[in-house]
Design a protein that fits this description.
It contains five helices and 18 strands. By secondary structure, the chain is an alpha+beta fold. It folds into two domains: about 1-210, no CATH class; about 215-380, Jelly Rolls (Sandwich). Strands 8, 9, 10, 12, 13, 14 and 17 form a seven-stranded antiparallel sheet that branches. A four-stranded antiparallel sheet has the order 1-6-3-4, with no helix packed on it. Helix 1 packs across helix 2, helix 1 packs parallel to helix 3 and helix 2 packs across helix 3. It is globular and about 70 Å long. This is DUF1214 domain-containing protein.
Length: about 375
C-alpha cells in the first residue's frame, strides 16, 4: 500500500502547495473571492491531470483543457480551445469538417507560458488558408519544426444560437496501427510528476501573466486595438481592467466592426479567468449586443442593473467583483484597426446611466431570463468538458 501511495504523493503535495497559493492570493478581499479561488483550483487540478494523462506524443489527439469547468488565461467565452502536443521532426495530419463558427484558427507554439515569459508563436493561420471542399472537409500536413511543442486550435462563435461546431482530428502517420505503450510504474510516476509541475506552474503563470499586459494600464482604461500578443492570426484586441464601486458603472463605447466575422467583449475575475458566462451575462458578441443608430455598441459594466434597477441588452454583470480584467477582441479581420475603431470609457454613477444613454430600453425579468436561458443552452450545445 505504501508503495502505491508513493506514486501520487508528488501530486498530493502539489495540491497542498497550490491550496496555499490560492488561499493567500494577494487580491482576495472577501470570503466569496476565496471560495471562487477554490473553485478555480479545482479547474487547475483537472487541467493538470488532463495535461499529464490525456496527452500522448506517440498517439496525439486534440484535448479541450479550457472550458466552463476549467477556466484560465482570461479564456474567451465565445471560443472552444483544442490543444495537441507535438514532437519535433514528426509529421502530423490534421483533418476536419468546417462548422459554421465565425472563426477557426490554428497556432503552433514553442515552449509554454510561464510566470516569467510568454510562449513563442512559430506558426499562425486561419481556415482561409485551407483548401476546404464543398462538403466542408479539409486536410493538411504539418511537420513539427524545431522548438514546436503545441498546436492550439480556437473555434470562435459570434452567434451562439446559429453557429455550429465542426470536427477535428490529428494523427501521426508513423504511429498509426500501433498499440499504446504499456503502463509501467516509471511511466505513471512521470505522469504524476508532470501533473504536479503543471498544477503549480499554471497557478504561478496566471497570477503573473496579467501583470505583463492588463494591469500595466491604469484602472478603468482600455488600450487602442492592436494585434494580439502571441501571434494569433487576424486578431486584434483591446485590454484593460476595471475598478468600480457598487454604485458605479463603466460605459464602454465601441463601433460595431463589419470588417470581421467576430467581435466580442468580456469581463473577468482577478483569477485572470472568465466569470460565469452561462447563468450571467458577462460577455457579449456583436451578434448578441444592441447597436445604436450611430453604429456604436455601448456596454454598461456594473454590479447593479443599470436602468432604474432593470437590466438591458448590453449589460455586463460584474457578479460581485469590484475589480477584474476587460478584453475586447476582433477576429478574422480583413483590415488593420485604428484608434477610431477602438473603445472609449466613461465611469459614472450607475443611477445616471438612463440619462446618459436615453436610447436604452429596459428588459423585463422574463426577457432577461430568456437571454440567460439561451446562453445556457448554447454553452451546453457547443462546449465539452
Amino acid at each position: 500500500m505504501s508503495e502505491a501511495l508513493g506514486l501520487t504523493k508528488v501530486l498530493s503535495d502539489a495540491i497542498a502547495e497550490a491550496e496555499e497559493l490560492i488561499a493567500n492570493a494577494p487580491f482576495i478581499r472577501t470570503e466569496a473571492d476565496r471560495l471562487e479561488g477554490y473553485d478555480y483550483l479545482a479547474g487547475r487540478i483537472r487541467m493538470a491531470l488532463q495535461t499529464a494523462f490525456d496527452y500522448d506524443l506517440e498517439q496525439p489527439l486534440f484535448v479541450n483543457p479550457t472550458h466552463q469547468f476549467s477556466r484560465q488565461g482570461l479564456d474567451n467565452p465565445d471560443a472552444v480551445y483544442l490543444n495537441a502536443y507535438l514532437r519535433e521532426g514528426s509529421e502530423y495530419v490534421v483533418r476536419g469538417r468546417r462548422g459554421t463558427s465565425a472563426d477557426l484558427s490554428f497556432q503552433v507554439m514553442g515552449g509554454a507560458y510561464t510566470a516569467d515569459s510568454a510562449a513563442t508563436s512559430l506558426l499562425a493561420f486561419d481556415d482561409r488558408e485551407l483548401d476546404i471542399a464543398d462538403d466542408g472537409t479539409f486536410e493538411f500536413t504539418y511537420v513539427a519544426e524545431p522548438g514546436a511543442k503545441t498546436m492550439i486550435v480556437r473555434e470562435v462563435f459570434n452567434d451562439w444560437d446559429r453557429e455550429e461546431r465542426g470536427t477535428l482530428t490529428i494523427e501521426r502517420p508513423d504511429t498509426l496501427g500501433r498499440p499504446r505503450r504499456p503502463l509501467t510504474r516509471e511511466l505513471l510516476a512521470k505522469k504524476y510528476d508532470v501533473a504536479a509541475r503543471s498544477l503549480i506552474g499554471s497557478i504561478h503563470t496566471w497570477f503573473a501573466f496579467p501583470q505583463f499586459f492588463q494591469y500595466k494600464e491604469p484602472a478603468n482604461t482600455l488600450t487602442v486595438p492592436a494585434s494580439t500578443p502571441g501571434g494569433l492570426a487576424s486578431q486584434f484586441s483591446s485590454i484593460g481592467h476595471y475598478e468600480l464601486a457598487e454604485d458605479e458603472a463603466m460605459i464602454v463605447s465601441v463601433p460595431r466592426c463589419d470588417d470581421c466575422s467576430y467581435q466580442g467583449i468580456q469581463v473577468g475575475s482577478d483569477w485572470y479567468a472568465s466569470t460565469d458566462y452561462e447563468t450571467h451575462q458577462t460577455s457579449l458578441t456583436k451578434a448578441q449586443a444592441f447597436t445604436h443608430d450611430d453604429g456604436v455598441m455601448r456596454f454598461v459594466i456594473s454590479e447593479r442593473p443599470p436602468l432604474g434597477g432593470a437590466p438591458i441588452a448590453n449589460w455586463l454583470e460584474t457578479t460581485g467583483h469590484r475589480t477584474g480584467p476587460i478584453m475586447l477582441r476582433w477576429q478574422r479581420l480583413e483590415r488593420a484597426l485604428t484608434e477610431a475603431d477602438g473603445p472609449t470609457v466613461q465611469v459614472v454613477d450607475v443611477d445616471d446611466v438612463p440619462t446618459l444613454l436615453p436610447q436604452l430600453t429596459p428588459l423585463t425579468d422574463e426577457e432577461y431570463a430568456a437571454r440567460i436561458t439561451a446562453r445556457q443552452r448554447a454553452v451546453a450545445r457547443r462546449m465539452i468538458s
